């Protein structure tokens, strides 16, 4: 059974109609299938989908990103990679089933694959904790990222989470520290890292794995510091103002690409990734292949500098960076008072060094003269 969003009512009615037309044993009794009518109705559905999905607002995009039938991390891992070997446990506490992680092959190249998995049925969603990772999940990924770094293996992460799990147990086991350590680990890696936001990219739970050389989003995915409902509750004390919150946060892929927070948008089929999973799979495969080839000939130091420079330039036109293309020029803008104080201190230090040098030289000369006179 297909699931429809609240703005897809017209499409739902047309698809119900087309199903009836395809069934020769409909309520009117045995009848001939009207292929011409079916073709016309299908064309009407396609036009409706184009009309709706070319004009989605930020809240509607959020609903598409959360769609029940949207392909999850497990789907991409099973269909994009070969010889996937899942690895478990953080070697401290236990296993977190909300994140899949392991080594695999992509186009005969070894890669580390990490995927935040929401699950696609009630049972699996509960088992996967709806994609909300606990501290042991982040510590598991840190362990594996360090292992991949040791053997020079690229890392591909699939991001799909409403956020890190906020439960009491998770907080007691150091949720905030685990997220911070994960971000630190991502930023220190010397291997190419790619993060693909396939659904929701929520808060620190997402950025803990998305501090990558390339942050890529599916066209109808979202990436934000908080959910629109949470934002609306905090700012306006009204969780119903989700559209205002979604617009203000600029959480859509187009907005984030314009702000240069992300690097690439992977196009989706008309109507969302769930309407044509094979086409979505092909588009993701092409993007991964292109980005792996881009970093293939970079040295480990160049990969690290690429990631560092990427994050240093986000949100900056002039600011602390005088030349955006060359971040070796990174320097604080100083006012005249600070410049005077620094130059004064520097001159005092230089004078002190000069006096100390003169005194030391005088002492050595006096010492040698005295020694010579004694002989």
Helix fraction by DSSP (H/I, runs of at least 4) = 40-55%
What can be said about the biggest beta sheet? 8 strands, mixed
Distance between the termini: 109 Å
Strand content: 5-15%
Order of helices and strands: HEEHHHEEEHHEHHEHEEHHHEHHH
Which word captures the global form?
Answer: elongated
Question: How many domain units?
Answer: 3
What radius of gyration results from the CA coordinates?
29 Å
Descriptive report:
The chain has 375 residues and is an alpha/beta fold. It folds into three domains: 47 residues; 234 residues, 2-enoyl-CoA Hydratase, Chain A, domain 1, CATH 3.90.226; 42 residues. Helix content is 51%, strand content 14%. It is built from 15 helices and ten strands. Strands 3, 4, 5, 6, 7, 8, 9 and 10 form an eight-stranded mixed beta sheet that branches. Strand 1 and strand 2 form a beta hairpin. Helix 6 runs parallel beside helix 8 and helix 10 packs across helix 11. The termini are far apart. The mean pLDDT is 86.
């Amino acid at each position: 059974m297909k699931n429809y969003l609240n703005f897809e009512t017209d499409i739902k009615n047309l698809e119900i109609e087309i199903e009836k037309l395809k069934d020769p044993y409909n309520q009117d009794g045995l009848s001939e299938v009207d292929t011409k009518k079916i073709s016309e109705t299908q064309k009407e559905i396609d036009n409706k989908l184009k009309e709706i999905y070319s004009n989605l607002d930020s809240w509607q995009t959020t609903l598409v990103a959360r769609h029940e039938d949207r392909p999850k991390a497990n789907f991409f891992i099973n269909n994009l990679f070969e010889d996937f070997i899942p690895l478990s446990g953080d070697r401290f506490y236990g296993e977190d089933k909300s994140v899949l992680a392991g080594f695999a092959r992509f186009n005969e190249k070894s890669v580390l694959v990490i995927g935040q998995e929401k699950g696609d049925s009630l049972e699996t969603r509960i088992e996967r904790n709806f994609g909300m990772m606990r501290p042991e999940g982040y510590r598991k990924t840190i362990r594996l990222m360090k292992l991949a770094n040791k053997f020079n293996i690229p890392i591909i992460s699939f991001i799909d989470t409403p956020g890190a799990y906020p439960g009491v147990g998770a907080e007691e086991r150091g949720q905030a520290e685990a997220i911070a350590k994960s971000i630190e680990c991502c930023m220190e890696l010397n291997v190419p890292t790619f993060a693909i936001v396939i659904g929701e990219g929520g808060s620190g739970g997402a950025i803990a794995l998305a501090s990558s050389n390339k942050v890529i989003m599916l066209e109808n995915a979202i990436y934000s510091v908080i959910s629109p409902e949470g934002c609306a509750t905090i700012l306006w004390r009204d969780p119903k103002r989700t559209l205002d919150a979604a617009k203000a946060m600029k959480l859509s892929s187009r907005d984030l690409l314009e702000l240069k927070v992300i690097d690439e948008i992977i196009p989706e089929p008309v109507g969302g990734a769930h309407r044509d999973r094979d086409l979505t799979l092909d588009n993701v495969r092409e993007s991964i292949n292109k980005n792996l080839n881009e970093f293939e000939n970079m040295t480990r130091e160049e990969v690290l500098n690429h990631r560092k420079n990427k994050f240093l330039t986000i949100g900056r036109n002039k600011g602390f960076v005088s030349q955006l293309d060359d971040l070796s020029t990174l320097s604080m803008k100083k006012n005249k008072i600070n410049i005077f104080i620094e130059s004064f201190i520097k001159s005092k230090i230089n004078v002190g060094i000069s006096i100390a040098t003169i005194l030391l030289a005088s002492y050595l000369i006096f010492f040698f003269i005295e020694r010579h006179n004694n002989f």
